[in-house]
Amino acid sequence: MERSFIARLSGVDVSGRKTYDLVDEPTGDDYRALLLCARSQCDTAVLTVDTTRDLDPSGRAVVERLAPELRSESRSGDLRLLRYELSQACVDVLGEAPGLFAWRQPGLPENLCLLRQDGSPWIVSIAAERIGYVEFTPFEKLLLGRAAPGLAAVLAHQGARDAILAAFERRLEDAAEAMEADLLVYARSVAEDGRDGVVAAVRDWLGSGELVRLGAAVHLVARLGLTELGPELGRLAEAARRDQLPGPTVYRSSPVLRERWRIRFERRLGEATTVLETIRSG
């Protein structure tokens, strides 16, 4: 693809950008096509070097070859953050790697990221964990489609999949809410004959690790005012603060849905905690 065809965008509306997770590593021609598209849209490449680990001679050679393009270097703990001008010379060196996730020590510097002129990410990677995502405008995605049709088709598939997955999740949430309402009616009826059994059953669900049961249990704690389960809610709240909640694995390829689930669950957990605190203080 000719560079003249890929005109640099200006005044782009950020709201028009979409994020796509790279479930499969861009390698070979697809990887180089990605760099070619980035050349017209980005002006900075970022690599990191972990100073607590050795860098092989091949990795040191890459750092030396990129030295003329170095814009700045900074430290973040034990990491050296190397920011390079994304010149053609830089792209040529980056393109010698077999793929995006090849950027990891000791063979190479780590975690290639490409940034636009405004500093926003165009591509981000954590090579050792084989995690990466791209953030494209529709026009940028069109350009990629011309350079790497196979890679663009995967992104399109992921976008369609995420839309369908979001619809699935909304329907699951609706069904769960109806189930929770039914459970509440039942739990109230049996609680009249003995609260201990309800508390024990809800405690089991709070510890189940199964997300539908966990959500229903938090709902029941709040609606029934099960103060006996305050410690269990406290442990869940602590896990949330440490970002250790067992989020749905189905969201591993959709950060938007993952974040939506986290916010929704933490809100319900907070409401339940507030109810119990109000009961205790009253």
Keywords for this structure?
7 strands; 53% helix; alpha+beta; elongated; seven-stranded antiparallel beta sheet; single chain; 16% strand; disordered N terminus; 282 residues; 2 domains
Oligomeric grouping of the chains: single chain
Strand-residue proportion:
15-25%
SSE-based structural type? alpha+beta
Point out poorly predicted stretches.
Answer: 1-15
Spatial separation of the terminal alpha carbons? 71 Å
The radius of gyration over CA amounts to: 25 Å
Order of helices and strands: EHEHEEHEEEHHHHHH
| Side-by-side strand order of the widest sheet | 1-7-6-5-2-4-3
Helical fraction equals: 40-55%
Mean pLDDT: 83
Number of domains: 2
Tally the helices.
9
Biggest sheet details: 7 strands, antiparallel
Query: How many β strands by DSSP?
Result: 7
What does this structure look like?
By secondary structure, the chain is of the alpha+beta class. It folds into 2 domains: about 15-145, no CATH class; about 160-280, no CATH class. It is about 55% helix and about 15% strand. A 7-stranded antiparallel β-sheet has the order 1-7-6-5-2-4-3. The protein is elongated.
